[in-house]
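Possible race condition, two jobs.
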Amino acid sequence: MKSSDDSGVGTMGIGAVAARFGLATHVLRHWESMGLLHPGRDAGGRRRYGADDLTRVAMILLSREAGLGLGTIRSLSASVDRATRHEVLRAEAEQLRSRIAAAQASLELIEGGLNCAHEDVTQCPNYRRLIAERVGPRLPAHGRARDGNPCASRDD
């Protein structure tokens, strides 16, 4: 399905489109090979991008900025079924929530280091709390050898 006609009137070449969006031309060719873009061709076989193509490029860029992969974008654009679209987007939303939680934890660690008055950050109460949370519960005292190392069994 071509989104622009062969006349070339009101269309742009691949270089102009790439420059307009700050992309390399090979990116547009790749998106076309994946079925994300369908530019028309002029009489000489050169790609011609119309208004619909520009809208599509902008949509792909927004989707990429939202963290969606090209395969997901292709699935969403190929699907007209609302239930399928929601299923794909729910999974993406959950992955995004996980990335946001990880970024929040990273920011908490960094801001804790910035706000810590201790010379040695390992003495900072916030740092120690985060480390303790990562380590988890300690082994019970009866599960340790005299040297403090964990024991496999008491019969050693």
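Job #2 (started ~2 s after job #1):
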Amino acid sequence: MNEQQSPPQASARPGRRGADWMFGGAYGTVLASALLAALGQEGEAFTPFYDASWVLVTAVTAGLAHGYSHHMASHRQESAGYRWRMLVLALWNEWPLIVAALPTVLLLVAAGAFGWNSYEVTAVGLGLNTALLFAWGSLVAVRVGYRLGSALLIGLADATIGLTIIVANALIK
């Protein structure tokens, strides 16, 4: 490259590189776990469809807020059309956060359809999400170049977040 050329502006686009898109998977799973633990209260009627809608609405809202804040943090003086395209791309890049909340949403919908017990649904959901956190952490670590043993330890560290939510749920309720 000669002195007249400038380097490409890869950082100007809010796109995802490598395993970066997997960040949203872990974030969405933690968000769904926390909501699942917080929504059900002992002594109250179990409202799984209502709870499922709140998990989904919160995940979508968090994705929009996260994408918007990334866009604003990297805001540059460009044309309005370019800024709008970058905003749409930044918002689109948050899809993993929303998708990661879907197992919890689907579990709650199934609980409503089949009349499952609140305590069991919460326990299964938190266990499932903890396993998903382990999978996300391990997958990301392998994807970025860690060996399998190290990747599994990283997955275990991520699963610790889910275990923390389980313990907090037990202590608070």
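The radius of gyration is 19 Å.
Logs attached separately.
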